[in-house]
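TICKET: design request
STATUS: open
ATTACHED STRUCTURE:
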């Protein structure tokens, strides 16, 4: 049995994943850093145990139940993960090319570009129609 299997150093575990036929389970936030640095790593979407967040309140506080419900709701709808990624900019940078497939969101700049191209096309066709009407009207006069 390999003694480095029980090593707590994540870097050693990631090296084993890259060099051997090995899988490693850890906190998603910890693995995200390595997945963005090493393009050969893939993190499964499934989670084994959701991350737990908590707040500290005074003992016997009347706010305990209210805060518990709100924190649970925020966690269940995914806001905790969203805020974590938003406020941790190093997780938003990736040296890897995107391998995601499927539909991509359309940004405002692309929508404006398409709208501008459509407007130019309508104006050009209107100009052609106007020229055609003028030519037709001038040919019927002579």
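STATUS: resolved
RESOLUTION: sequence designed for all positions
ATTACHED SEQUENCE:
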């Amino acid at each position: 049995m390999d003694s480095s299997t029980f090593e707590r150093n994540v870097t050693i575990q990631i090296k084993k994943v890259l060099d051997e036929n090995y899988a490693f389970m850890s906190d998603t936030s910890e693995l995200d850093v390595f997945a963005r640095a090493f393009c050969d790593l893939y993190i499964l979407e499934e989670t084994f145990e959701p991350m737990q967040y908590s707040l500290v309140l005074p003992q016997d506080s009347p706010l305990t139940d209210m805060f518990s419900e709100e924190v649970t709701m925020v966690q269940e709808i995914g806001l905790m993960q969203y805020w974590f990624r938003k406020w941790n900019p190093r997780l938003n940078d990736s040296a890897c090319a995107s391998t995601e497939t499927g539909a991509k969101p359309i940004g405002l700049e692309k929508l404006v570009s398409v709208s501008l191209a459509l407007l130019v096309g309508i104006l050009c066709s209107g100009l052609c129609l106007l020229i055609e009407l003028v030519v037709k009207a001038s040919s019927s006069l002579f």
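CLOSING REMARK: The chain has a mean pLDDT of 79. The chain has five helices and no strands.
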